[in-house]
Amino acid sequence: MTDHRIFHNALFNTASWVVAVLLSLVFLPYIVGRLGADGYGVLVLVLSVIGYFAVLDLNLGDAVIKYVAQYHAEGKMGKVNEVVGSVMLLYLALGCAAGVTVLLLSGELVTHLLDIKPELRPAALFAFRVGGAGILLTMISSALAAIPNGVNRYDITSKATMALGLFTSLGTVGLLYLGAGLRGVVLLNLAVSVAGIAFYVAIGKRLLPGLALRPVLSLASLGTVLRYGLFSLMSRLSTMLQFQGVRLVAGAVLGVASVTYYVVPFNLVSRAMAVTFRVGGVIFPVISALQGKRDFDSVARLYLKASRLIFAISTALCLPLFLFGGRFLALWMGESFRAQTGSVLLLLTASLYIDTCTNIPSNVLNGLGMPKVCGFFAMANAGINLALVYPLSRWLNIDGIALAFLAGHVLVAPAFVAYVTKRVLNLSLVRLFQEVYLLPAAAGLVTALPFLFLLRLPFTGVAAVLGAMLATSLLYLAVSCGMGVFSREERAFVVQYFRPGRKERAAGALEEPP
């Protein structure tokens, strides 16, 4: 697996996230305006129900990626078919059960459990019933989308995600303009899910000519993916428990306003840091493929290199938030809001900055088939956070909630990174510090010095603060190049990749990825 392919995947995986954010910013006001607050609320609730039932997928999408990558590298196409077929069979059973459950409960949801206006109830009932079918389609689609990712073609799934997202947004706007209303929007989402499945079926067969996309019962393969998926689900559930539990405690102890003061800065930082997880996630199938080839020396080299690059990217993203995040909040949300959340923003930025250090170790463990370790460390993090959030919130109010979040990361992340480095990969912690953290951190300190003087200057608008934040990130990248954070070969590679006329950038054949 070449650096070219990894970079290409990372670029498109990030681009799909950026496009999703932009589509939301551009079209959401019109959609909400046409549906109305109540109508859009029903749509969100339907999608939320689908999302909550989607936890029934047991995180087997990651299992498909892992074992497709490993067995494909080993040349075991029969095992690939067993894994994919077993997951499809399980998803058909779980999806049908979940869909029937939503169908049976939809009347109770609309008339008693949810406060929906009487005139909206018929459309809401229709939406929930259609949404029940959407659960099955979502689960099948996630299994099929994992196949291209398993053969390291994140660019394909990213392009599909962008195309389907754009079609959904434009179609929604068009239907609302024509007066279709909530029913039309829900049916459009269902149709897009069907189109996505058809696309992934065609792409899967083209990428893997021997792929047999039919449900099969292989107890051995089903047991393998279930063990992987259930342990992987531990990390997912601990994250949900941590984030949702903290918000509930905040609302119960400090009042519902405190939830806003916590969630707004959290969303600001987490959306910025999402870039690092989109970039780092593409090494997951690469590690599995290297495991299939028994090339563990390459696993160790990729671990160190990817960890350094992710730490540098996260520094470029967090440094502006450390320096100018408070100013941005004041101009964006108001000075009174910043007074409530300025410290919260700094504590959350520090927490997620530390968390990015676990990005590559987590993907390496998952790629090697060790999600249990990730799950146990994630549960430890969530346990510390939830144990501290009540006493610290009583003592320090909203700052205490953010401090509890930071404490979990400070206590768990270093131990997790050390475990993966020494116990799993048999690498020296001194080498890890020297090759991964030393230069990116030093470049961050050098970059911060001139901007400390700018903190005394008045900023008259959001654009000025955003300009200062962008300048901070760009200067950091320039300083990093000068200090050797990015090697000469890496810099030359990026220049070559974006050179006009590069033939690989033309839509290239599926069978011969760039």
UniProtKB/TrEMBL annotation:
InterPro entries: Poly_Biosynth_Transport
Record bears the keyword Protease: no
A Gene Ontology cellular-component term: plasma membrane
Segments crossing the lipid bilayer: 6-32, 39-56, 83-105, 126-148, 160-178, 185-203, 215-233, 245-264, 310-330, 398-420, 432-453, 459-479
Subcellular location: Cell membrane
Topology of this chain in the membrane: Multi-pass membrane protein
Protein's UniProt keywords contain Glycoprotein: no
Keywords: Cell membrane, Membrane, Transmembrane, Transmembrane helix
Protein name: Polysaccharide biosynthesis C-terminal domain-containing protein
Gene source species: Geomesophilobacter sediminis
